[in-house]
Amino acid sequence: MKAIMYQAFGNADVLQMVELLKPAIQSGEVLIKIKALSINPMDWKIRKGEMKLMSGTKFPKYTGADFSGIVEEVGSSVPGFKKGDEVFGVVKNMMKEGASAEYIAIAASQIWKKPSNITFAQAASLPVVGTAALTAIEKMGRIDSTTTILVNGATGGFGMILLQLLKQKGAHVTAVTSSNGTAFAKRWGADMVIDYRTEEVLSRKETYDIVIDLSGKMGYADAKQVMKPDSKFLNPTPKPIEIPASLIQNLFTGKKHVIVLADPSTKYTNDLLYAVGQGLDIEIHKVFPFHAFKEAYRYAERGGYTGKVVIEQQ
Ligand SMILES: NC(=O)c1ccc[n+]([C@@H]2O[C@H](COP(=O)([O-])OP(=O)(O)OC[C@H]3O[C@@H](n4cnc5c(N)ncnc54)[C@H](OP(=O)(O)O)[C@@H]3O)[C@@H](O)[C@H]2O)c1
């Protein structure tokens, strides 16, 4: 089978299509013919060597975390799935496996039945950003109509799901996005939209109960300017030093620095499936064919779009 792998850290030029044996499954695994995979910032952060503590420095490396496809073979101890089922899922350990391939052999605990009201591209776009959004909401604590939330970088994949889930909770959401995303932010439930290219959010007078940065460009020190004395800053893009540092910072200030690290599991997927049933909007900005993988990764990394970029296979 064909798979996309790389032998050195770098930009999308290091990605190569290689020929591998079709994977054999263990008793607790399922073999899936992949129909779609979505691109996440972590794909290029790992590839560029920005997450070496987590990724290590061994090669070759796989890429691609979340995917959808069709079950081709089921392990002897796997209940609930059969050949032909349409499923979606997420790899547990990108160091050992990747979704940028024609097939994946994966633990049955990492896949779920694809709802019939969404496409393969939409299902492949859900696990990473959906789980991250639900984890962030869990970390926010109690939210109601009096809660004011600033979402910085609101119309990428993560923001798309987060805005809609926050809307369901009735929070008052201010979304920071470029002009490309303004209409989407409103559609997904933002009460107010700020275009970061024309207005500096940190120089505004408003303060918020919760600030979450999805752009990776607003740090805790900056965010404090728009936080109330007892606000939370949620940080899903922490530098390694910030994980212990946040614990110490939180001992001395009411302005809490909260790290968000999502771990996709059934606990979150059930809530996501419920949201999909309720009509969750999953915007697919652009779909690339498998053979155009380099173009797809370059395009996704450049940014400037709303929703998700997906690679599809026949
Ligand atoms: N910790 C976890 O478990 C976890 C899980 C999932 C994702 N993440 C991280 O969360 C972040 C968001 O993920 P994503 O999938 O939504 O990424 P994404 O699709 O690349 O979205 C990032 C958003 O930030 C916006 N942005 C860029 N520069 C900005 C600026 N200066 N001010 C305000 N907004 C700006 C972009 O808008 P324009 O393109 O219009 O400029 C884009 O909408 C990524 O860094 C990702 O790695 C963490």
TrEMBL record:
Coiled coil: none annotated. It holds the Pfam family ADH_N. Gene3D superfamilies: Medium-chain alcohol dehydrogenases, catalytic domain, NAD(P)-binding Rossmann-like Domain. CDD domains: MDR1. Residues 10-311 form the Enoyl reductase (ER) domain. It comes from the Bacteria. InterPro entries: ADH-like_N, Chloroplast_QOR, ER, GroES-like_sf, NAD(P)-bd_dom_sf. This is NADPH:quinone reductase-like Zn-dependent oxidoreductase. It comes from Dyadobacter fermentans.
